[in-house]
Amino acid sequence: RIRVPGGYLKAEFLGLLQEIAEKYGNGSLHITSRQGFEIPGIRYEEIKFNLIDKLDPSLVIFSDELALTGEEITKIIQRHLTDDRVFGVMARHFNLKEFFVEEKLNHARTQIDRCDGLVIVYGVGASLVNAGDILVYCDLARWEIQLRYRSKELGNWRCDNLKEDILKKYKRGYFFEWRIADKHKKNLYDRIDYLLDTNEKK
Q1: Cβ-based neighbour number of residue 33 at 10 Å
Q2: Total-model pTM
Q3: All residues at 6 or more sequence positions from 144 whose CB lies less than 8 Å from its CB, including other chains
Q4: Which of 20, 61, 152, 199 is most buried, by CB atoms within 10 Å?
Q5: Distance from C-alpha of 185 to C-alpha of 20, rounded to nearest angstrom
């Protein structure tokens, strides 16, 4: 999520927007009056290096750090995970915001309000931190997520479980993470300004 106070952006960043559109999108740009960032489970280092750092923001907030820990989330969703290695219960009634710490969200919002320069909020649920002016949704296919589970490159959200059994990681994703992510994503469809395909490593 990117916030540009007063809608002012230096001309030098226009070339970067072109690069983003051509490298990650279909080569076109759609100008709106909003800004922001949504990144569900992609390679954060790619976004940080190829996009965020080049924008030279005054403030960067990683939204994942405002969420509950993996252990806290597990306690809440345990009955949906069950003790079975494969089978679980769909967690459709949860909302993503339930897994964020309100005090941390409020602190981040205060930081944003006090910042006069460019602010970027990135990570899962970035739009929950601030509405912003431009929303960039970074898309990652579930098949690619599973491949990263298998290669031990990716663990579950907020969990330190890269080496955990692939079926357990998949189960947590299938019965919980993808349900709340889908629900959250549907609320963003009409607000997305840019969509990045993050399935290929850049």
Answers
A1: 8
A2: 0.77
A3: 199
A4: 61
A5: 21
Contact 94, 179 (CB under 8 A): yes
Name all contacts of 85-94 with Cβ < 8 Å and 24+ positions apart: 85/165, 85/167, 85/168, 85/171, 86/167, 86/171, 87/171, 88/171, 88/172, 88/174, 88/175, 88/176, 89/175, 90/175, 90/179, 91/175, 91/176, 91/179, 91/180, 92/179, 92/183, 94/176, 94/179, 94/180
What's the pLDDT band for 38 if we cut at 50, 70, 90?
Answer: very low
**CA distance linking residue 176 with residue 94, whole number of Å:** 9
7 torsion bin: left (phi>0), alpha (psi -120 to 50), beta (else): left
Strands 59-62 and 119-122: parallel
Residue 6: what residue type? Answer: G
Cα–chain-centroid distance for residue 157? Answer: 10
Distance CA 131, CA 136 (A): 12
Read off the pLDDT of residues 150-191 as tens digits, 9 standing for 90 and up.
999 999 999 999 999 999 999 999 999 999 999 999 999 899
- Among 65, 23, 19, 67, CA closest to 44: 65
Name the strand (E) or helix (H) holding 126: none
Phi and psi angles of residue 125, each rounded to the nearest 5 degrees, phi first: 70, 25
**pLDDT for 82-92, tens place per residue?**
999 899 999 99
